[in-house]
């Protein structure tokens, strides 16, 4: 008797004990405890499940397969897995290579279905913002086909470590309070708000990346099956986007290609702020910062700049060579590229708060040159003190994270840009949006790749502007 549907520890201990006691699969009936069983036969498990000692070895890959298959919804899975374990334990050494074996084939099919469901959960969980007693919590409703919530909780913890969230499903709920994960019973969709500003963000984002010239309805519905649509805010935009696609393509064909506007003057000084504003005070204090060793070889602290009520905050990695000398963020080659991309995306730099995760230039001297060196996690953590003040004071609607260092500083975890770029990420009090660092574009050796990546970068900035205006 297993404690619940994905009682991996219970199943594994029982299977081991049964196999070591030579209990054949035909003699075992597997079941999952229901709430009424709690009061019925309390000692069933101890009486029927032997716990002998002894060596028990089965291939590691089979254990991995079992760990996945146990999440499948099919009630027969426990018995099927025990039959496979039993056979391996009795000496079928190459069982896993016999892919046409009916039992192994069935288990592989179940594992595949679990993996597909996992992929969909990771892609289609959409959090809504709920404010309770002044505290923000993010709640998502998802209907998995299999019992995948427990095994996926760690993924969502890593990805959304800095927020407090709950994922509700019909059979189980998972909660993260910023420190630990807990699981509760299944829930119902009424506990999740219907619409919120994040939903609006998703619709804006999806509409902006939707390319009518590339519309392939069958590919779209296979990647984003209709069964998930009711929980995807962006799905509400799909019928209208499909309907209007033809007309938009015709209009694209007829519109002459216009060149991008010339970048406006590179950087204008942000409007002077009263010197006793919290940001101005933080800037003055940061000038004397000794929170890590980077201050020593650097010329000066490069604090953020821009309006204290900016709706967009852009965060880069660290001050570079030019910034170190000028005392202002993003004024060197990467900054010029950023200015150009912003102008093309219709963003006025003077309306954006621009800063860096690390406020001192980290470099290695090479002759007369100072070669950029990546800040490490300790330096990023030390400088978060200042970044947190800037974020709290500016409280931007959209926080654009330029590259992996900025993403790590704000999201508190390692981020693979290619995996997480271009989609809204809920962030307490703001929406984060990850994209590449402009210096990455400068480093691309091949012209075609540079043009392609630059266009994608401008598209990201455009979406950020839309989100900020939504
Ligand atoms: N790169 C950054 O990340 N920030 C700057 O300010 C300049 C270059």
Estimate the strand proportion. 5-15%
Rg on CA atoms, Å: 27 Å
The CATH class of the largest domain turns out to be: Alpha Beta
> What is the CA–CA distance across the termini?
53 Å
Name the bound molecules: uracil
Q: Please tell me what the overall shape is.
A: globular
Please bin the fraction of helical residues: 40-55%
Largest sheet: 5 strands, mixed
Q: Helical element count?
A: 17
CATH superfamily of the largest domain: Uracil-DNA glycosylase-like domain
As laid out across the biggest beta sheet, the strand order is 1-2-3-4-5
Number of strands: 12
Structure explained in plain terms:
Helix 4 crosses helix 5, helix 10 (278-286) packs antiparallel against helix 13 and helix 13 (377-394) crosses helix 14 (404-411). Helices cover 42% and strands 13% of the residues. It contains 17 helices and 12 strands. Helix 6 links the parallel strand 2 (135-141) and strand 3 (165-168). The strands form 3 sheets. Strands 1-2-3-4-5 form a 5-stranded mixed β-sheet. A 5-stranded mixed β-sheet has the order 7-6-10-12-11, with helices on both faces. The chain has a two-stranded antiparallel ribbon with strand order 8-9. With 470 residues, it is an alpha/beta fold. The protein has 4 domains: 8-120, no CATH class; 125-191, no CATH class; 197-252, no CATH class; 278-469, Uracil-DNA glycosylase-like domain (Uracil-DNA Glycosylase, subunit E, 3-Layer(aba) Sandwich), CATH 3.40.470.10.
């Amino acid at each position: 008797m297993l404690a619940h549907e994905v009682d991996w520890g219970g199943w594994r201990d029982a299977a081991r004990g049964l196999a070591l006691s030579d209990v054949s699969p035909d003699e075992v009936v597997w079941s999952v405890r229901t709430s009424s069983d709690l009061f019925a036969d309390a000692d069933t498990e101890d009486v029927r499940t032997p716990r002998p000692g002894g060596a028990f070895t089965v291939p590691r890959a089979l254990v991995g397969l079992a760990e996945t298959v146990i999440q499948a919804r099919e009630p027969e899975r426990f018995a099927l897995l025990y039959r496979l374990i039993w056979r391996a334990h009795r000496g079928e050494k190459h069982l896993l290579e016999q892919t046409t074996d009916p039992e192994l084939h069935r288990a592989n099919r179940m594992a595949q279905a679990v993996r597909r469901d996992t992929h969909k959960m990771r892609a289609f969980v959409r959090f809504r913002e709920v404010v309770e007693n002044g505290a923000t919590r993010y709640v998502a409703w998802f209907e998995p086909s299999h019992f995948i919530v427990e095994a996926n909780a760690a993924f969502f913890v890593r990805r959304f470590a800095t927020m407090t969230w709950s994922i509700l499903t019909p059979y189980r709920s998972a909660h993260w309070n910023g420190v630990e994960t807990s699981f509760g019973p299944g829930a119902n969709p009424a506990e999740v708000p219907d619409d919120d500003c994040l939903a609006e963000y998703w619709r804006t984002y999806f509409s902006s990346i939707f390319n009518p010239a590339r519309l392939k309805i069958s590919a779209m519905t296979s990647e984003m099956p209709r069964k998930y649509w009711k929980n995807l805010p962006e799905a509400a935009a799909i019928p209208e986007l499909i309907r209007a696609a033809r007309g938009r393509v015709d209009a694209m064909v007829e519109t002459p290609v216009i060149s991008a506007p010339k970048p406006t003057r590179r950087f204008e000084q942000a409007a002077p702020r009263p010197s006793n504003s919290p940001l101005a005070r933080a800037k003055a204090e940061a000038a004397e910062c000794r929170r890590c060793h980077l201050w020593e070889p650097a010329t000066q602290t490069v604090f953020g700049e821009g309006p204290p009520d900016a709706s967009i905050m852009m965060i880069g990695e660290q001050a570079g060579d030019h910034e170190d000398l000028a005392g202002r963020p993003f004024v060197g080659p990467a900054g010029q590229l950023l200015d150009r991309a912003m102008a093309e995306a219709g963003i006025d730099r003077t309306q954006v708060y621009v800063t860096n995760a690390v406020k001192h230039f980290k470099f290695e001297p090479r002759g007369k040159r100072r070669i950029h060196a990546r800040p490490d996690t300790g330096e990023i953590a030390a400088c978060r003190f200042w970044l947190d003040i800037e974020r709290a004071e500016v409280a931007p609607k959209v926080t654009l994270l330029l590259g992996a260092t900025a993403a790590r500083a704000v999201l508190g975890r390692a981020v693979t840009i290619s995996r997480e770029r271009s989609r809204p990420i809920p962030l307490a009090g703001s929406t984060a949006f990850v994209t590449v660092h402009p210096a990455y574009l400068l480093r691309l050796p091949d012209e075609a790749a540079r043009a392609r990546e630059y266009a994608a970068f401008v598209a990201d900035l455009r979406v950020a502007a839309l989100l900020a205006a939504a």
